[in-house]
Amino acid sequence: MSVNHYKSFGSRVFDALNILLLTGLALVMILPLLYVLAGSFATESEIATRPFFLWPEKFVTDTYAYIFGTDTFVRALVTTICVTAVGTAVQVMLTLTMAYPLAKRYLPGRTLVLNLVIFTVVFGGGMIPTYLVVRDLGLLDSYWALILPLAINPFYLIIVKSFFQELPQALEESARIDGCSEMGVFFKIVLPLSKPVIATFSLFYAVGIWNDYMSPLLYIDDSSKWTLQVLVRQFTSADAENALAQLDSVFFPAEGLKFAVVVIATLPILLFYPFLQKHFAKGVLIGSVKE
After folding, report:
1. What is the CATH T-level fold of the domain 71-289, as seen in this structure?
2. Is the torsion defined by CA of 190, 193, 198, 201 positive or negative?
3. What is the arithmetic mean of pLDDT over 188-195?
4. Intervals of CATH 1.10.3720.10 along the chain
């Protein structure tokens, strides 16, 4: 007999309520995305006359043709992709190379460094001190200003360190006996075993960089270096008409443009997630590897 046969009436009611609750939450999150997606393919008149719809009466691609035919959007999209790719690689590598030695209990000064890391989790420098540091390092109007100030997330660092601590020590000791150096152990033994955690935090870092609009606003004065999120903010804010008027075009689909830029800014991450889903599911179970 199946397990469901032995479920009590209360358990079935609880499962039904859970399903209804989760379905309602899913609809609350999915319906706005579907509306934005449908609005990006709708005409201006339909957007103005229909307060809510999930399927446009007439599909048009004028908005996307306009976006990809405008240097401003294409440049911002390419900039965002490049900054996200480079930034994710830098942040993940720095996190891994700092977490690995901190996972060794025999490391001199390990406790002091860990306490300093934990301190930064609780207390942050704030916007103004961070801006002064970026300015004094000569990073203003540089893409590195979008990467280096957030190069290592202390919370992620602590989790990765805990993951490294629970890897089987026998594998590392065997590699050392065979003459492998410490760097060899890290790259040939530890990193291949850490694919789930690398995939998980690569996704976290990539999403953080992709969605970041505050850093470009603070550190980038040259509008030609703006990222896609800054454009999304500019074109969906209360001052959107002035921002749109700055584009080199007499005609633009104003309302459809707002929907389209949101779709373009959201879709890459949504498409990227399924490729990491398997590793992500394992990564959230950090600590499951035992000696």
Report:
1. MetI-like fold (1.10.3720)
2. negative
3. 85
4. 71-289
